[in-house]
Amino acid sequence: MSNSSLTSLVQPSAQAVRIARPIAFLCSLILLFLTSSCSINPATGGTNFVLMSESKEKEIGLEEHEKVLASMPLLEDEELLAYVREVGNKAAKVSHRPDLEYTFNIIDSPEINAFALPGGYVYVNRGLLAYLNSEAELAAVLSHEIGHITARHSVQQQARRGVSKTAATIGGFVTAVATGSNYVGSQISEVASIWAQAGLSGFSREHELEADSLAAEYLVKAGYDPAAMIDVITVLKNQEDFNKLVSNNSSGGYHGLFATHPRNDTRLQEAIAQVGDISGNEITETDDSVFRERLNGLIVGQNQRSRTTDARNRYYQELLGYTLIFPDGWKIVETTTTVTAEKEATGAIRIEAQRIQDNIEPRLFLRDKMGVTALQKSEKLEQYRLKGHTGVAVSPETGNLERVAAIYFGPRVFIFRTEIEDSSVVDDIDAELLASIRSFRAIQHGEIAAATETRIRFVQATEFFDFTVLAQSSTISNYAEESLRLLNGYYPIGTPEAGEWVKIVE
Q: How far apart are the C-alpha atoms of 441 and 436, rounded to whole Å?
């Protein structure tokens, strides 16, 4: 073998050098990007990957808070709101970010949920408040959300998404250099707030565990029994069990660890036992008279205002057990098998239900069953513990852009076909259509409007108290006994002792 041949084996070619240099440079950029974006988690003391300062976090939080206020009605009950803020601030003041200005609000919605946004914004739904039975339980819910804020979970989640996008773009460029193609990596289009989306749908199990551990610590420091967290889990698990019974589905409402923990979760119980031993903190007995005073008269289910003029255009399909929010001002037309919402010269969204025949992923259903092969803005849907997939394609019939989606719910797949007619505002209409798809969920127990508003009243049980007897005179039309048991934490069995305060519905 000649010397030149040997040299060619051990020395890279000019082409290889041309390829390797930019790859090495880009890898260095990625490494620099990763190492320069780490900070200390104020709650845990660990190192976290983040992409923004605390001031920027507060700025984004305020912007997203204003969006929430514009899209979700707030409960008009100043005394109850002041009480929620008082309880929330007790936990916030003993948290790892006590100097952060926290804002607490009650969403006027029957949905059982609570969520948080970066910068100190915490929201709890009226529907969740109705099922709590003590101030400590309220503090547990608020502390869990505060834990997400103090640990900057939203910021971490955003950072990871940013890395994924950056890596995808750089990876595309590397591919272009190596192959000589013109591919430069596609940009992922954000059509909805990642902050509100994370808050409403939940975080990773790791983050939920961390938030729950922090919540237990904050409860103890604020003087509450951390075992209230187990009580909240029981409340929500009972709701889930009842939903399975009446609607043959397991979809839940509240995000997070509360919704995914089993009642006897060992890790959570160990965390609670550990924080309960923190020196210098005493668990005090909470007088729940104020809790009862503030929740007395709270509306259960929908209020009269939403029944008469639902500004958000919420639709209920009682036969199939689902609900969603259509774009404001769109006309809704129903048939026995489909529902359509449309606005002239703007767009339309059509929903059809089919029995699931094959056990395939929703993405493959769109491709193989619906014939959508060129899907843009493709993304998974994971909402209210329902699985689905969505994206944008060109309609073969009209040539217009359409958003399509498939969501699995019980034994059925719900197919969404949406057409965008006004090409001048494609992004705006698509954002509205996607928001409607993301609002799709199971109808929760007690959510359907009755003829009149129903409200919680607190009374003391007698020695002859019986849920069956109470249900017979209740204004609750369906599953009265089960509903009363759920409201009081005695589902599916059990009877309160004489003198114990219980909720009735009038």
A: 10
Burial zone of 333 (CB within 10 Å; 0-12 exposed, 13-18 middle, 19+ buried):
exposed
Residue 424 in tokens: 């001048």
Per-residue model confidence as pLDDT tens digits over 227-267: 898 888 888 888 878 877 776 544 445 554 454 555 556 65
pLDDT for residue 67 is more than 70:
yes
State the sign of the Cα–Cα–Cα–Cα dihedral 106, 111, 112, 118.
negative
Please give the single-letter amino acid code of residue 474: S
Pairing of strands 501-505, 454-460: antiparallel
Question: Is the distance from CB of 412 to CB of 355 less than 8 angstroms?
Answer: yes
Q: Contact at 8 Å (CB) between 296 and 458? A: yes
Q: Which of 86-95, 172-181, 394-403 has the lowest mean pLDDT?
A: 172-181
Three state DSSP letters for 153-214: HHHHHHHHHHHHHHHHHHHHHHHHHHHCCCCCCCCCCCCCCHHHHHHHHCCCHHHHHHHHHH
CB 93 within 8 A of CB 145: no
Do the beta carbons of residue 38 and residue 47 sit within 8 Å?
yes
Which band of pLDDT confidence, cut at 50, 70 and 90, is reported for residue 327?
confident
Contacts with 102 (C-beta within 8 Å, 6 or more apart), sequence order: 88, 89, 92, 120, 121, 122, 146, 149
- Whole-number CA gyration radius for the chain: 26
Contacts of 500 (CB under 8 A, 6+ apart): 460, 461
**pTM for this model (two decimals):** 0.62
* Percentage, residues of the chain above pLDDT 70: 69
Give the DSSP H or E segment for 376.
strand 376-383
- Quote the CA–CA distance of 336 and 345 in Å, as a whole number: 26
**341 to each of 286, 309, 352, 444, how far by Cα in Å?**
49, 17, 12, 22
Question: Hey, what are 24's tokens?
Answer: 């090495």
Phi, psi of 220 (to 5 degrees): -60, -45
Q: In the prediction, which pLDDT does 73 show?
A: 86
